[in-house]
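A quick aside before the break. I want you to see a complete sequence-to-structure record at least once, exactly as it would be stored in a machine-readable document. Don't worry about memorizing anything.
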Amino acid sequence: MARRKEFDENAVLQKAMLLFLEQGYEKTSMSELVEQMGIHRRSLYDTFIDKHTLFLKAMDRYAKLLDANLAQGVKRSKSAKKAIRFIFDYVIEGDQDLPFSCLFVNTAIELASRDIDADTKTTEGFTKAEQLIADIIHWGQQDGEFSSNRDAKELAECLHNTLVGLRVMGRTSASKEKLRRIADLSMKILDEN
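That is the input. The structure line, written in tokens, reads:
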């Protein structure tokens, strides 16, 4: 007879995700995961198989939360310009559900060059973000808010690169004022003729 789980899998996965966000994959030990998640080591292995599988599931959870938060903010935006501004503000200010750090950026730096699964998840996350930005730019081009002289996809790639850079710089002692200046200047590309 199989034993019934005595924990909420989503809740413990959230805890693991936050620990990976804070410390990265390599620095996070199984002992720390067990302690942070509040479950027995055996339950961790029975449910998540191993640390790598747990990490990939944590990345999936992060992607789902990030997608939902961004989609909600963009949907509330009354214009494409405000939607792009929301994304930059979200990256600079963070969110109560997700700390400032970005699991995709952290993973790209730490693991992507030597872990195909991590690279795939990171690339998928970056691709979704670029597509969201491209859709917003296209919306702005149709409404005349943004110049139509450049391809929305290429503009999205450029802005996404800036967002990734802001995530990295945000991990340093760079001021939010500096990050906002970079965001403001980067957004001007949308108005160029």
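Two observations worth writing down. Residues 59-190 form a domain with the Tetracycline Repressor; domain 2 fold (CATH 1.10.357.10). The chain has a mean pLDDT of 93. We'll return to this after the break.
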